[in-house]
Specification:
Elements (H helix, E strand, L loop, with lengths): L1 H4 L8 H4 L29 H10 L6 E5 L6 H9 L2 H6 L4 E5 L6 H13 L9 H12 L6 E6 L20 E7 L9 E4 L5 H12 L1 H6 L1 H10 L4 H12 L8 H12 L11 H19 L2 H12 L5 E2 H12 L5 H14 L4 E4 L2 E3 L2 H13 L3 H17 L7 H17 L6 H16 L3 H19 L4 H16 L3 H19 L4 H16 L3 H19 L4 H16 L3 H19 L4 H19 L3 H14 L7 H13 L1 H21 L1
Parallel strand pairs: 1-4, 1-5, 2-3, 3-4
Antiparallel strand pairs: 6-8, 7-8
Helix pairs in contact: 3-4, 6-7, 8-10, 8-11, 10-12, 11-13, 12-13, 14-16, 14-17, 15-18, 18-19, 18-20, 19-20, 20-21, 21-22, 22-23, 23-24, 24-25, 25-26, 26-27, 27-28, 28-30
Length: 669
């Protein structure tokens, strides 16, 4: 457990050392905010709404909300629009999509998207609202039109207005979907009605075939009416009728089945309001689809309902089944038969390879079935057990895509946990806190760390090494927020516990010394930082050996300190020692090795050009832009540094250019 908690950054400042470009968040190859796969076919009866939406997004307000009841097709509409030529022509700067449901943190999504899009961190010592406002300022640098889609926002309360973009941010539009109607003045609004009778019949015909509609036109219209002209209900019933076992079922008989499920003597418009009618029709469609499933498929539906209503990784479903069924578990049956039957009836949506999702209303229906299941408690407990393991394995390699696939379910697991004093519950809190920390969502991480620390103190005692570890993590959180006065006493408490419980020469003592040194260095207290770095290095050499990667990290940290003091020769020597260790122990392709190689090259070129790091970075950025290279990352920087080193003419040109810049600056002063 200690290894998983021991340090938010495994080696104190190694998050800075081992990633030269630490001011930039971890980037994914590709776009984690890309639109989901486009559904086949067109949304029936929505052309007028699509045209209206296009008009609203060109109006004076930069926020638009598509509202309507559940199952009416809000998500389908905005995804359809986002994939249309008129949208891509209007928003040449890109379209970014975020599924907000069950995440309840629109501010966090804005911050994460902004960090990813502009590859820059925001000041950590800001409140959430201040960070969002800083994000919108960042988007003002975007000259081309951009569309941000926030799908399925549960509450359009008055507080949300504070997080919306300012009116002078004219190049950006925010498009939201919600069951609620926005307050007057907040946004343009498009209220989505149920389908017209003709559109509803067309939708049904697209699934079961026009021939069956033509054979029973009156019954088809009545069926659509009884389903409230609601797209989700029409699709569920359509795929039910399209099943090979029911292709001979008449629409009249289907209507009888629905009326039996609704258990209402009459569904005439005079007696039942349209909204209630639609909901009853949807409930009946759910019931019919549920009864069509075999018990094994129903069981899978219940397992899926244990998750939060967000995209679900199939490998986690497998882990739950392995614990539930043990040696009896058959993966081929699970995926090829029971999952297939759910997908066939369109109860489960494929998001990506081995990632699935449920419509929110279907999830709610499945969860009601789960609560009535004989194995409800067992399924819920195993779900929690699996996510305890997930939480304990969270580390700095967790990227944004993984975060989005874990966070909602980890929150659900924590909410479901009955024993709030249990150590495993505390581990889950810690895992979620780390998850937030790695994404820079410090305000969300802090209360979880504090709750985790409180449980550990009560369960293990104030002087337990795991308590020291938690103090260390919390101190690092405060350091990243610029709360140095809050961080220092926690580091000192942690150091004191480790020394008393583990001894002065324990590696955890070395790590805490390293973290405390980094804190002092970040405040410019170099004389306080250096002896602690040296102590940490000495302990690691004696306890781990001279060629251990953690020793290399300490050498790198010390090199950074000397670089900050302008001691470039000493810094280069230490960085070179660290690089040799990384190459021997981790190989040339390891990220730590590559970053160390950049560090050595940087120091060497700085010496040749007689400039500081900031000046050299400006040169590298200019060269990258001139050569149309990717954003300045480790690989690009190493390539450019090698070009400068191996090209005397380029080196001479840069040196002369910097000299002219210095002379011009001197003349101006």
């Amino acid at each position: 457990m200690i290894d998983k908690q021991i340090n938010i950054t495994q080696d104190g400042q190694s998050n800075v050392i081992n990633n030269i470009f630490s001011s930039q968040p971890k980037q994914l190859k590709g776009n984690p905010f890309k639109l989901p796969q486009r559904r086949e076919g067109r949304p029936f009866g929505r052309e007028e709404e699509l045209e209206k939406l296009h008009e609203l997004l060109q109006s004076g307000k930069n926020v638009c909300v598509v509202s309507g009841m559940g199952g009416i097709g809000k998500t389908r509409l905005v995804r359809e629009y986002a994939n249309r030529p008129e949208c891509t022509s209007l928003f040449t700067g890109g379209v970014y999509y975020i599924d907000v449901r069950d995440r309840e943190n629109m501010a966090g999504e804005i911050i994460a998207l902004t960090k990813w899009r502009f590859k820059a961190d925001l000041p950590a010592n800001l409140s959430t609202l201040q960070m969002v406002k800083a994000c919108w300022q960042q988007w003002k640098y975007q000259t081309e039109n951009v569309l941000l889609i926030f799908d399925d926002i549960s509450s359009l309360n008055k507080d949300i207005e504070s997080y919306l973009p300012p009116k002078d941010l004219v190049s950006l539009r925010v498009l939201m979907t919600s069951r609620e109607t926005p307050h007057k003045g907040i946004a343009e609004k498009l209220e989505l009605p149920v389908l017209s009778e003709a559109a509803a019949v067309d939708l049904l015909a697209s699934i079961i075939g026009q021939e069956r509609i033509d054979a029973e036109p009156k019954e088809a219209k009545l069926l659509c009416y009884e389903l409230g002209y609601l797209p989700l209900a029409l699709e569920l019933v359509g795929y039910y009728l399209d099943d090979e076992d029911y292709q001979d079922l008449s629409l009249l008989a289907m209507g009888d089945k629905l009326r039996e499920k609704v258990k209402h003597p009459s569904l005439s418009p005079e007696q039942v309001p349209g909204g209630i009618q639609a909901k009853r029709g949807l409930q009946a469609a759910f019931d019919l689809s549920w009864e069509e499933l075999k018990p094994e498929a129903q069981y899978l539906a219940c397992v899926l309902a244990a998750f939060a209503p967000s995209p679900i990784r199939w490998d986690l479903v497998i882990k739950i089944y392995q614990q539930l069924q043990g040696e009896l578990f058959n993966h081929d049956n699970l995926k090829d038969r029971w999952l297939k039957s759910l997908r066939k009836l369109h109860l489960v949506i494929t998001v990506d390879k081995d990632i699935y999702n449920l419509h929110l209303l279907i999830h709610d229906y499945f969860y009601e079935q789960l609560k009535q299941h004989l194995n409800f408690s067992q399924i819920k407990q195993v779900f929690c057990d699996v996510f305890v393991v997930v939480a304990s394995n969270i580390d700095q390699s967790t990227n944004l895509k993984t975060f989005n696939l874990i966070e909602p379910h980890l929150k659900k697991m924590i909410a479901c946990c009955e024993n709030k004093e249990d150590i495993e519950f505390a581990v889950s809190l810690n895992g979620l806190a780390l998850l937030y920390h790695f994404q820079g969502e410090y305000n969300d991480a802090e209360p979880l760390f504090l709750q985790f620390l409180d449980i550990y103190k009560r369960q293990l005692g104030n002087d337990h090494p795991d308590v020291a570890t938690t103090l260390n993590n919390l101190a690092q959180l405060y350091e990243f927020q610029g709360r140095y006065n809050d961080a220092e006493p926690l580091f000192l408490q942690s150091l004191d516990i480790y020394k008393r419980q583990l001894g002065n020469d324990h590696p955890h003592v070395a790590t805490t010394l390293n973290n405390l040194s980094a804190l002092y260095e970040s405040q410019g207290q170099y004389n306080d930082a250096e002896p602690l770095y040296l102590q940490s290095l000495d302990i690691r050499k004696r306890q781990l050996g001279n060629d251990h990667p953690h020793v290399a990290t300490s050498l790198n940290n010390l090199a950074l300190l000397y670089e900050s003091q302008g001691k470039y020769l000493e810094a280069e020597n230490l960085a070179q020692q660290a690089l040799v260790i990384y190459q021997q122990k981790l190989g040339n392709e390891h990220p730590d090795t590559q970053n160390a190689a950049v560090r050595v090259k940087l120091l060497y070129i700085m010496k040749l050009l007689q400039c500081n790091k900031n000046t050299l970075f400006s040169v590298l950025e200019a060269l990258a832009q001139q050569a149309s290279l990717p954003d300045l990352n480790t690989e690009t920087a190493l390539t450019l540094l090698e070009q400068i080193e191996n090209n005397p003419d380029l080196l001479s040109f840069i040196r002369e250019y910097l000299q002219r810049q210095t002379e011009a600056s001197d003349d101006n002063t």
